[in-house]
Specification:
The protein is an alpha/beta fold. It contains 7 helices and 10 strands. About 30% of the residues lie in helices and about 25% in strands.
Length: about 230
Amino acid sequence: MIKMINITKVFPNGVMALKDVSIRIRKGEFVFIVGPSGAGKSTIIKLISREILPTKGYLIVGGKDINLLKRKEIPYYRRKIGVVFQDFRLLPNKTVYENVSFAMEVVGASSKQINKQVPEVLDMVGLRHKAASVPSELSGGEQQRVSLARAIVNNPEMVIADEPTGNLDPETSMDIFSLLNEINRRGTTIIVVTHADSIVNQMKKRVISLDKGRVVGDQEKGVYNL
């Protein structure tokens, strides 16, 4: 599904974030990307999301070089991707239901589709009973569940989670990863950037390790080994 071929990224300030990185991620995989600060993890996420372009190399997603996308094509490409952030990024004045439905509204979904899909994903993340609550009335774990619901409501081909449990306690973090695992079992490709070493070790998924912009490890059923 994703092929990064000899990717190098040098930012305008001269910092080399990635150097000659080649990674392949198969459709339906669950992959952890780990490494110390400055290793290049966030750069990979931004490249896949088409927020930035590589300095050199090719990035093929679904058989297409996304570096060649025209500006008008980028929003349509991003509809294939659900994103989960460490800081939730929920709309504070909208209810749980409205936060999730908004993700469908911006892509032009019909009211019928929204009325069917939103309750289903809220059921999946265990928050249907909180549909009328606003984010300030939720715990951190509940807010991240809303973020997950929003990420998957449009049935994306992949979900990218950037430190999704960085602000959560260990038990709540495991709940979030269990949800990500369930989403993966339904066929969605999951890519997670995380420092949660205990969870990485427990889940036994593929682990890609980065250091100083290079891939230094790639293990099936790997562990956090840095």
